[in-house]
Amino acid sequence: MAERKKIGPISFTLRFTIGFVWLGFWSLLCMCLMILALPFRSLRVRIGNFCGKIIGPVVSRLVGAKVINPDSKKLNASAPAIFVTNHSSALDVFIGMALCPYGGCGVGKKEVLRIPFFGQAYWLAGHLLIDRGNNAKAIASMAKLSDFVKSKDLSIWIWPEGTRSMDGKLIPFKKGFVHLALETGLPVVPVMLHGAHEVWPAKTMQFYPGNVEIEVLDPIKTHKWSKDTIDDHVEHVKSIMTESLVQRN
User: Fold this and answer.
1) pTM for this model (two decimals)
2) Domains and CATH numbers, the chain
């Protein structure tokens, strides 16, 4: 990362302002549509997907990320599925918004509600916000999401690490995605973001323009998974994703 040139303060201020206005305008517009579609959660999910595909690419580009996605067709062809992706930058959220196939329901932490416009739009879209401090409540919420996903033939987009890695390496996974797989029977599809942590380092407001390459790994069948071996399934998926990161470094 030392070789990258950081965006200067004037350019940063301009980019941040444009990004905030863009995010706010489209979030408010889509929130109005979601309110009209309040009784229809699956429709709100798709409106949220539409909003994400407008907001995500623009904000990613303003940050300085050139997203390279040779696996776009493979990603869309994998749905419905549980898409799990690595998390090492705030940029991951915006890229994920752009990538998530239509009919993809997100799973995020309740703190997302603190983000102006975006947090409220995320909630209204019917995505799941979980309380990481209450494990029993989180599992119950995921069980309800599983029923909804199965009945509407939707996908799930989730960051199994639960929080951002500081160095781009994977940190321990939460077990939620395995519970979702057991309930839905959907395959798990790892989606790897290579280089996002170098463009927008975790827990900073500094941008270093560069490429972020998307790699969609092969679907992992889950129909034979068991509650008795949850830890094994978590580590299996994590090992596959770790190997992908190692091969790129």
Assistant:
1) 0.93
2) 9-248 (3.40.1130.10)
